[in-house]
């Protein structure tokens, strides 16, 4: 199970996605932990069983057990936060931003890995989940922590490509004819 298996499964019309999937995972300037944590967190954010299955094993080969758990935690906490903060923003009443969220988020303060790596994974998941408020918040923490815009952009590219891979493969599975009954 691997990036290569996903590339092989992508149909001809998704050649750009296939090439980008190879590129974002093989030419990254991110550290191995940043790269594979981003890949795993993004795979989980897509909710695609096939993409998760293929990428989790390869991520596991490149991450410590602690980093693997932290990437899962980033996907989990952002699944909650992205809904809450996107909704409070989209309502259009600024009063909601002044109210305490009253949601437990302790993993953000103590993720078990380098804080900037965890923030990078949260940013990438927030891109998939479409939460502008979370994107702004995590990007600020990353920039204040010294991460360059180019490295932040790499995480966004990974999010985009992993998401496109999942969308394409899930759509192909849905379009496939059902097996004939016997």
TrEMBL record:
Catalytic residue positions: 131 (proton donor), 134 (cysteine sulfenic acid (-soh) intermediate)
Any one biological process term the GO annotation gives: cell redox homeostasis
Keyword Disulfide bond listed: yes
Disulfide bonds listed in the record: 131-134
Single GO molecular function: peroxiredoxin activity
Pfam families xref list: CMD
Family that this chain belongs to: Belongs to the AhpD family.
Function summary: Antioxidant protein with alkyl hydroperoxidase activity. Required for the reduction of the AhpC active site cysteine residues and for the regeneration of the AhpC enzyme activity.
Protein name: Alkyl hydroperoxide reductase AhpD
Gene this chain is encoded by: ahpD
